[in-house]
Amino acid sequence: MDIQQERPTASEPSLSSRATSPDSLRTIHLEVWRIAWPSVVTFFLMTANSILDRAFVGRLNSVDALAAVGVGGQILFVLVSLAMAITVGTTALVARFTGAEEEENSVQATGQSLGLSLITGVICTLVIYLTLEPILHLLKIADSAQRQCLSFLHPSLFGIVPMFLSQVVNSAFRGMGDTRSPLKVMLWANGVHILGSWMFMLGNWGAPRLGVAGGGMALAVSNYVSLGVSIYLLLRTPLRESLQIKYLKLSLEWIRRILRIGVPSAFTALLRVTSMMAFTRILAQTTQGTSAVAALPIGLTAESIAFMPGFGFSVAASALVGQALGARNPDRAERYGWASTIQAVIIMSLMGAIFFLAAEPFARIFTRDETVLPLAVSYLRIMAISEPFLGLGMVLTGALQGAGETKKPSVITAFSFWIFRLPVAWFLAIRLDMGASGAWIAMAATTILSGILTWILFRQGRWKTIKV
Question: Of residues 334 and 72, which shows the higher confidence score?
């Protein structure tokens, strides 16, 4: 796998210069696609990695293992959400400074983000490690699934600090409009993770069969590989100076600038993750119990194939909107946002249709358990209807983040996921005794509501005047 940094050619102008180029519709859409496709592939690799991981867990023939990895993944995503307090701010600031051609500030923002992520990663690792058992107890999952979850998470936590650092480096790349470097990082990290899981989770090539604990080990090692490749690529860019001590030494002013943008986004992600944990608790109280809890991560993993384009176009929208605003061209920034959204919604609508029609074959990739399979199939068919609205919300949220508008999307998430989703899920799944299907309907309705509210927020246009 080639990790040599590609250098710009004379025929391909920088994004900052394109921010002031003619605004033809074709040019706008081509620029969006140029930035989006490496991110789409990156998230495809991430999804493929997750799918293979779930498939490996499925071969352990244990519903407890499926439930444990699903819950463990949610807890790890809490940490990813906390990292967003730094990474979203990094992308927004680097994008603005790139558009304004202020290289020194881009270097400063990257260095400060790296220093802050190192400290935050250490603290988060210690806190989660010390509170794991109380967290699992609150989630009300079965004792046998709790033991498996601890086996998975204990080795996984050793990879949290490198994960924080590599995410900051990749967010800086994206702010510059470089989405190919994160793709190269993902290629290496995925290869290590898949090989490690295949060996140590399932006991291949003479390695011990460690079950979910082997999967946790492979995840931690892959995070160190991700950091190593990220730093290698960073050293081949103008941002390499950010590794100097003078830039890594934290400044209160820069911390405030980064966190002012990033904290609301981290809070938004935490709202999503914690609401999913509460949602998991509702599932655990249905008549399907552990089978419903096991079906959720299967459905989410399979569905992620449909919504991964949303992540890619969200990255494109964030970088391009931020750079256009840095170049003081708000009208072009808005056109980038809409162009990114249109492309994502078209692709995700097609993917949603495929998942509706092929729900059972996809679900069978992950489980053959006859109690889990029909629940995963119903999840995919119900959620397929909401895919266009998921694309709408994801991409426009990315555009707003690139502009530095992260507070109002957080309010939308709080309302949609806590005030709307959880009560509706409880009412349908428990009170009306619809079980998992009622919970899936609540999820789809939440996605539709969140997408519409984000569309309204973006159309208002107040994000064009935000200072970062």
Answer: 334
